[in-house]
Amino acid sequence: MKRxxxxxxxxxxxxxxxxxxxxxxxxxxxxxxxxxPGGGTDIAARLxxxxxxxxxxRQVVVDNRPGASTTIGVDxxxxxxxxxxxxxxxxxxxxxxxxxLKNMPYDALRDLAPVSQVxxxxxxxxxxxxxxxxxxxxxxxxxxxxxxxxxxxxxxxxSSQHLAIALFVSMTGTNIVHVPYKGQGMxxxxxxxxxxxxxxANVISALxxxxxxxxxxxxxxxxxRASVAPDVPTVAEAGVPGYEVLQWYGVxxxxxxxRDILNILNRAVVQSLQDPKIRERIVADGGEPxxxxxxxxxxxxxxxxxxxxxxxxxAGIRVDLR
Length: 322
Hints:
Blueprint: H1 2-23, E1 29-33, H2 40-56, E2 60-64, H3 71-78, E3 86-91, H4 108-111, E4 112-127, H5 136-145, E5 151-154, H6 160-172, E6 177-180, H7 184-192, E7 198-202, H8 203-211, E8 216-220, H9 235-238, E9 246-254, H10 259-272, H11 276-284, E10 288-289, H12 294-315
Parallel strand pairs: 1-2, 1-3, 5-6, 5-7
Antiparallel strand pairs: 3-9, 4-7, 4-8, 4-9, 4-10
């Protein structure tokens, strides 16, 4: 009898979820961003929000909730009702922060349901022209000949650019000194000025300096060359096989969201990324539009979580970013 009752309750729950999915959405949606307006996560959110509004016929509002290295915004979504009306525009730091922050209020792998990746974007390794290395292979030879004498700038300990260099150092067995900055913009200024030799930079912010010969591009961090810099090899093809670092942005929901609603959201995000204007904007900014399944996105999140945990442990990075 108890088994029959449980089956009956389960059936009622599934039926209710199906009815909700048929009606969804009936009110505006919020797309939460865990950072201030103007950053990459915010740009990705505001890029697709108007198209999602058009698809759903309901307003999709971008809601900036910055603080504590994005954890305030993420925690807000984790604690929200899993009804599909509160979503997160997440960034790849979701896979990094658990290894750096103390007392995390959530478990990204357990408490969030990936909907779809939106954008992936590589970094670009750049050097000041005074550095006597015109390629990744020449950089490796120089670093091995002068251990501990080369330095690289990054926007803060534990930042994605810092970890990109930490992975490079780990994979190549070199000793290159990290010079932390409060932000990527300040770091880039000092590399252009020759105060620091190297950095991993955002492609779009660094390319003007490369084209004006103020910086030298050594490699991009993706699995393929960037469409906005086709003459720059990947770090992998330039001398470090298997090297890959991609910054990604993607939509996630509270973990208990009904599967039917998750599927509706996935189809809408994928459809928005098929808009030619949106795709052109993403490519022009050095990124690549994605639009994949919840399962594929979940696999990326798990893989990055394991990857960056190992890099952080090997590099001995001990940072509390709160």
